[in-house]
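Hi there,

I know you've been waiting on this one. I reran it after we fixed the sequence typo, so this is the corrected version. Both the input and the resulting structure follow.
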Amino acid sequence: MKNRIWRDLGNTIFYIEYLSLYINRVKRQNKIIETVFLTTALIGIAGWNKYAEYNILWSILLFAVTATRILKSKFMVSEAEIATFQSLKSFYLDHVRDLDNLWFRYREKKISEKQAEKVFNQLNEQERLIIKVEKHDKLFGKEPMQTKAEKLARQKLNQYS
């Protein structure tokens, strides 16, 4: 039981770190893309005003920006998806507190193995339900991000020893 709690605690801490890194990266990318859209649109408007003889060029540029904004959901993570990841992170923050409490109570022999297993199974059921509800299958990260999350999770787990 001790190993199961510890493994689940480690995985949950990893999930929190990974989600934090992922959310920050996506927000930063979205901000950069929005800045490029805005800058390009402003250049198109200013260019049209200053160099009206190239109105076809400015029209094409503004059309491209508008079309790209309409299609941005195809290549950007939406605010709704980011909110889903943030709620998932909040769930895992609560989950890690519960696991931490279970770990402490079991390690200090304040609860029996049978009680610990019952609480552990309830926590796993909660996690299974949140995964089913949130449907967070669009989590794309790169190996460096996973490595960094593992390193951060290991540092936090070392505090338990």
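Quick highlight: Residues 2-158 form one domain.

Best,
R. S.
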